[in-house]
Amino acid sequence: MIKEVFLTPFQKFVKIExxxxxxxxxxxxxxxxxxxSPYGDIYREIWQYDIGIVTETFxxxxxxxxxxxxxxxxxxxxxxxxEIKRELLIGELNSPKKIAFPLVGxxxxxxVPVIFFFVLNQNPDTAKGWGIPMATDIAFSLAxxxxxxxxxxxxxxxxxxxxxxxxxxxxxxxxxxxxxxxINMTLLVIAIVMLAVLYILSYRxxxxxxxxxxxxxxxxxxxxxxxxxxxxxxxxLAFSVxxxxxxxxxxxxxxxxxxxxxxxxxxxxxxxxxxxxxxxxMDDLEDWASKFQSPLQHLEHNLHGWVAYFIIPIFALANAGxxxxxSENLELALVINIVISxxxxxxxxxxxxxxxxxxxxxxxxxxxxxxxxxxxxxFIAGIGFTMxxxxxxxxxxSTPEYIDSAKIGILIGSFISAIIGYIILRSASNxxxxxxx
Length: 437
Hints:
The chain is mostly helical.
């Protein structure tokens, strides 16, 4: 029973992320075909179209692609922040024993690709792209694992999810520390004070989604203008959302019974509308339901579909359209560097570090996960699509040809990583079936 209660939400999460990975792939293919078709100019003009607010005293305009990368992606990072907070407090990262396995894997998956990048990089102008091969795209990765069905143990999917969350923490820190511009301390201090107000209210159990939305928009704008990338504001805002319910289950059930009896005894109109008493009792029901729900869990649940099925595919559609035909200005060395750093950096980095950590008994690997499983999922972690493209757009903001080169490297590296990882995991599952037979 306990196992079923725990696994069902996780399995739903895996299905959402897997379908998101399919949408991500479709959006990527559409972007690539569109950008390299006779209508490629229209593709580029759409994303560079300026949208914003212009008055006599105020002007705030940005190209559509920046509204996506700075605005919609802030919502994506907000969701990541909610997931990180939940995992740290009550999930797979809430104890040293639980966090050890994915933490070791994530460290290997972040540090080794960076080392590969610096060793292979010969151009000082492309050195700032070192953060690109660090990230893992959880949607694409889980889509690959889900395609293998029951051939892959569920504990391996749990490991990949926890690993990707630790990986996201590292990517966010890298973006905040190394890929932000010159900082306006005055605006940053104002934003931090507003965040502090939200944290204090959260600590005292006060939460309002309207206040959160208003503060969130202002803090996002202040981060944008202060020089810190506004997506970092999304992470910090998420940590101000309370996880604790206002009432426990037993209290809610008591009140639910009272409301049920009240609605049952209320007067009923002959018309197809509610009576005044019924409306009042329905308001009571909504009020008790609101108190019973965890604000963090409720927000995470509501946002997950929007992020998985809309924001991430739109991001891919806007960013994956690389002009391949006639790309004489591509930096081939950067393309090769990113491909190798993603494929070998992730594939060897994660598996070898986990193997060594297990050998010296620093971590404990679940019994149903073999080394071949770890090797396969390590290569799958080389699918760095969403976060990698995002970091590339920050690293080479002033050099479009490097951005295109980085994107091509990311696409090729992610594709190769997916193929190798899939073959290894399928082979591991076939061996398991043979040995059982």
